[in-house]
Amino acid sequence: MKQDISDWLNEVKSLQQQLGVMQQERDAAFQEAAQWRDRFHDETQLRQQKISLLQAQISQLEAAQTALQSTDSSNIGPEVIESLAGMTDPAELQQYVHEIAQERNALRRQLETERKAHQATREELSLALGDAIDLLTQRGKTKASN
User: Fold this and answer.
1) For residue 68, how many other CB atoms are within 10 A of its CB?
2) Does residue 96 contact residue 87 with C-beta atoms inside 8 Å?
3) What is the mean pLDDT of the chain?
4) Which residue of 27, 37, 64, 119 is surrounded by the most CB atoms within 10 Å?
């Protein structure tokens, strides 16, 4: 009977050890699952951010395309239309739009400078014409009095 009890006790100890090993394996599996869940969550967030950025770029490009289509294409040079047709990369198109915007700003500044210079010339010529008329009027008065 002692033999039976010791066999049963050994069997219980063996089962307890197996249970301990199984619990450790279970805990390791739970930990690994948690790590995979975190990785999946991080990857999901990253992809959602990329999707948001790409949707914003698409919206910007669609707005630029709409604006381009709404403008009179006869004012757009064929080289610009050719350049736009060859661009498929959004970053390349954004760079091109940025360069065009810079060029437009530079041309606006030049136009404003030219307008100011034109206005100054106009004022100077008006003053010179007024002075010339005054001189002619004074000469006419002096000749008439002599």
Assistant:
1) 14
2) yes
3) 85
4) 64
Last residue of a domain, one of 51, 70, 89: 70
Same domain, 86 and 28: no
Residue 88 three-state SS? coil
Same domain, 50 and 93: no
Contacts with 58 (C-beta within 8 Å, 6 or more apart), sequence order: 90
Last residue of a domain, one of 70, 105, 122: 70
Question: Within its chain, how far is the Cα of 62 from the centroid?
Answer: 13
Question: Based on the domain organization, do 40 and 83 belong to the same domain?
Answer: no
Whether 55 and 119 share a structural domain: no
Q: Which domain holds residue 39?
A: 1-70
Task: In whole angstroms, give the CA distance from residue 138 to residue 146.
Answer: 12
123 token code pair? 């004022």
The reported pLDDT for the residue numbered 72 is 54
User: What are the pLDDT digits (tens) for 92-132?
Assistant: 878 888 888 898 889 889 999 998 999 999 999 898 888 88
Distance CA 146, CA 143 (A): 5
pLDDT digit string, tens, across residues 49-67:
999 988 888 888 888 777 7
